Amino acid sequence: MSRLRLALEVNPVKECQSCARRDEREVSSQILSYQIAHQLLSRVPGHIQVDGNFLILNLEGHDPLYFDLSLGSVRVRNLNIPFEQRYNREKAVDELVRKIMQEAQINPSYGTYTIDPITTLIVKLIEIYHARCCLHIASVHVQDANSIWEIKLHEDGPSGWIQSNGILRNSFGEEMSIQNWEHLRPEKLAMYVFGFYRFCSHFPSPTK
Q1: What stretches of the chain show up as alpha helix (H) in DSSP?
Q2: CA distance linking residue 208 with residue 196, whole number of Å
Q3: What helix, strand, coil percent values describe the chain, rounded to 5?
């Protein structure tokens, strides 16, 4: 059994089995990649990008980190770090992040800064809904100085969009600003956003 299985224990909804036939390691790798990137962003300012099957983490003062979302590894310069060889169930993500920082020579910042709330929202959506229903980032593009993230359910499923200015849009043409829900904790905000996209009958839209 894969040592990365712990990442899949995210309040499963038994009626939803979109990822049931996918490789457990691949599902875990995608969730862990976003979790690790988010923890690194809590230590060093930066931002994330998505390019095909890679999550790219750009940290200030460091070389880019390329997370392979299928294989469960991160590459920086000529160093490749597989998650499974360094993952400890008991210490989980915290210890894995510590090892990556040590091996990649990432120095934490000591100034005061906050993680971009859109990044936190995207990570929470992946954490909660990737294993459950194959939610993933399909694409990212820039329009009128705004980054637009396309959120998609499995390969042939519906899409929703998040703009870096906080505007949400679903496939029905409806728009909403996350400022209306900014008082919510991140997990609750992710649930509201997922519901707004009207992806699933188990999660009704909070605006209806």
Answers
A1: 24-41, 92-104, 117-133, 186-196
A2: 9
A3: 35, 25, 40
Nearest alpha-carbon partner for 25 in 5, 51, 54: 5
pTM metric for this prediction:
0.87
Task: Say how far apart CA 94 and CA 163 lie, in whole Å.
Answer: 29
Sheet with 135-143: list strands edge to edge: 135-143, 146-153, 159-163, 167-170, 175-177
pLDDT in tens, 120-142: 999 999 999 988 888 999 888 88
| Nearest in space to 12 (alpha carbons), one of 2, 24, 83 | 24
Residue indicated by tokens 């992806």: 199
Indicate the DSSP class of residue 8.
G
End-to-end CA distance of the chain: 43
Give the largest CA-CA distance in the chain. Answer: 51
Rounded (5°) CA angle 62-149-17: 110
- Residue pLDDT, tens place only, 168-196: 999 999 999 999 898 999 999 999 999 99
